[in-house]
Design a protein that fits this description.
alpha+beta; about 25% helix; disordered N terminus
Length: about 250
């Protein structure tokens, strides 16, 4: 599966601000970029060996972009999920996810190694064009290299962005799969053949890096652009959404 997905037309900053205002969302939108680490993305954050992507949460909030380089520092699970490395024998990984037989650790995340192996073989990693993948605040001027956009949201706003993601569809378009936190940032979208939106932040191992109330919803660029077109008579402009936000504001 190639990494040649063509992004939708570049959204305007005004449209993004409009949606953020309706959601009353202050956390930044996080993008995955299939791009080189150029000056367009500074300031940079470089990963230390075995460091989880989500350990950079506070640095994303501060405007920094994480640089993952093929053969460089960072969690090897992220390198596999983002297509930078092929990684270990999937049978060994299956035992690492379960009973630890022949692996460096036992995580106990599936009932058997066979189930874990079936999961590992169920999807392909993307294929970046270069030896770097960047993860950081959305920069509209770099839209052509954007491969996904992630909302960092509390449960109230997760409900809103889930609803908005499915606003134009009679079907359920949101998935909440099993997997590593980094796998939800690009791989789980299936290069346009997967779900239109993926709930993440549910990987037990990476939860420690997020505030208690934060989860994620990740969408491909084309669907993000669609979400920006929510009409003025949608639920985001109705009393029940604004009453909820006002209630939460009183509790803060």
């Amino acid at each position: 599966m190639s990494g040649t997905t063509t992004p939708a037309a570049r959204p305007t900053q005004d449209a993004i601000v409009r949606l953020m205002w309706k959601l009353r969302l202050r956390t930044p939108l996080i993008a995955v970029y299939d791009a080189a680490a150029s000056d367009a993305f500074v300031p940079f954050a470089e990963a230390e060996p075995e460091t989880c992507c989500f350990a950079f949460y506070d640095r994303w909030l501060a405007g920094e972009t994480l640089v993952l380089r093929r053969g460089g520092g960072g969690c090897k699970g992220a390198f596999r999920a983002l297509g930078l490395e092929k990684g270990r024998d999937p049978k060994v990984l299956a035992h690492m996810l379960t009973d630890g037989v022949g692996a460096s650790k036992a995580e106990g995340l599936k009932a058997s190694a066979d189930l874990a192996l079936a999961h590992l073989q169920s999807g392909e990693a993307p294929a970046p064009h270069l030896d770097t993948v960047l993860v950081g605040p959305l920069r509209v001027e770099q839209w052509d290299s954007v491969r996904s956009i992630t909302f960092l949201v509390d449960p109230d706003r997760l409900a809103a962005v889930m609803t908005l993601a499915g606003y134009w569809s009679p079907d359920d378009v949101v998935s909440a799969p099993f997997g590593s936190g980094c796998s939800f940032l690009w791989k789980a979208l299936g290069e346009g053949k997967g779900p239109l939106a993926v709930i993440g932040g549910t990987d037990v191992a990476m939860r420690r890096y997020l505030p208690t109330a934060i989860l994620t919803l990740t969408v491909p660029p084309s669907h993000f652009s669609k979400m920006l077109t929510a009409p003025e008579d949608s639920f985001l402009d109705r009393d029940w959404w604004n009453d909820l936000m006002d209630t939460r504001g009183r509790w803060a």
